[in-house]
Specification:
4-stranded mixed sheet; 4 helices; 4 strands; globular
Length: 89
C-alpha cells in the first residue's frame, strides 16, 4: 500500500496536507481549506522527514504543500496551493 493511501485511510479529514514548518503556501492552503469549512490532516515533513521521499515518489510533486482530496472512495492528488485553489473554485 502506498504511503499517501495509508495516510488517507487513517484519517477522517476531507484533505491530507503534506507541509513544512516555514512555508507560506502551506499556511495559505490551510487558510483556504479553513475558509471553505473543510477539514484537513497535516503531515509535516520537518517532523517526519522519511515520509517526503515516499510522497514525492508517489505524486511526482517535489514542493510543498502536497494536497490530497480524501473525500471520495479513493484519495486524489490535487497538487500544491495554486492547484488546490483552482480545484475548490
Amino acid at each position: 500500500m502506498s504511503r499517501v493511501v495509508s495516510d488517507a485511510e487513517s484519517s477522517d479529514a476531507d484533505f491530507i496536507v503534506y507541509s513544512t514548518t516555514i512555508c507560506p503556501y502551506c499556511v495559505a492552503v490551510k487558510r483556504l481549506l479553513d475558509g471553505k469549512g473543510l477539514t484537513y490532516h497535516e503531515i509535516n515533513f520537518d517532523y517526519e522527514p522519511d515520509v517526503r521521499s515516499h510522497v514525492v515518489m508517489e505524486t511526482g510533486h517535489r514542493t510543498v504543500p502536497v494536497v490530497i482530496d480524501n473525500r471520495g472512495p479513493n484519495p486524489m492528488f490535487i497538487g500544491g496551493f495554486n492547484e488546490t485553489q483552482r480545484f475548490l473554485k
